[in-house]
Amino acid sequence: MSDCIFCKIAKHEVDAKIVYEDDTVIAFEDTNPQLPVHTLIIPKEHRDHIGDAVDEVLLGHLFATVSTVAKLKGVDKTGYRIVVNTGEDGRQTVHHLHVHVLGGAQMPIRMGPAD
Ligand code: AMP
Ligand code: ZN
User: Fold this and answer.
1) Residue 48's CB: how many other CB atoms inside 10 A?
2) Contacts for 85-93: CB closer than 8 Å, 24+ residues apart
3) What is the DSSP letter of 70?
4) How far is the C-alpha of 72 from the C-alpha of 27, rounded, in Å?
5) So which residues are the catalytic ones?
6) What is the mean pLDDT of residues 26-52?
7) Which of 15, 18, 28, 31 to mutate to test the pocket of ligand 1 (most atoms within 8 A of CB)?
8) Nearest Cα to 73, choosing from 48, 49, 40?
């Protein structure tokens, strides 16, 4: 996708603070961190969201990379939250599949009962 910012990061066409990279995934720092550690992991190949023809091998590798990133960021012992916002109700703003890894402090509790 030519106008997708995360595709551009995956192709090194746009700067990002890269935490980890291999042939199929890349992890980089979120530019608007919500916690001291806030890293995004994406597949290099564009997928709109987790329901967009993501094959199981890619999905497995994407999520296996979570623990790699957690170790690199030093939160593997203290814990972290992973979030995959999906679609409008999920408040996804960048429409290239990404996993948020959030840690380095306790998560604020924001979720409440549904109306
Ligand atoms: P989401 O609401 O799940 O779609 O989150 C998108 C995330 O991408 C937000 O946390 C943004 O701060 C982050 N973001 C947007 N543009 C960039 C960028 N160029 N580099 C790093 N993170 C970005
Ligand atoms: Zn993309």
Assistant:
1) 16
2) 86/49, 86/50, 86/51, 87/49, 92/49
3) H
4) 11
5) 98
6) 97
7) 31
8) 40
24 Cα distance to chain centroid:
14
* Total-model pTM: 0.95
Q: Which atom of ligand 1 is nearest to the CA of 30?
A: 22
pLDDT of residue 86: 97
Tokens of 85: 């916002």
The string of DSSP letters for 3-50 reads T-HHHHHHTTSS---EEEE-SSEEEEE-SS-SSSEEEEEEESS--SST
CA gap 62, 44 in Å, rounded: 10
Give the nearest ligand 1 atom to 92 CA: 4
**Which domains does the chain possess?**
5-103 (3.30.428.10)
Q: How many CB atoms lie within 10 A of CB 4?
A: 15
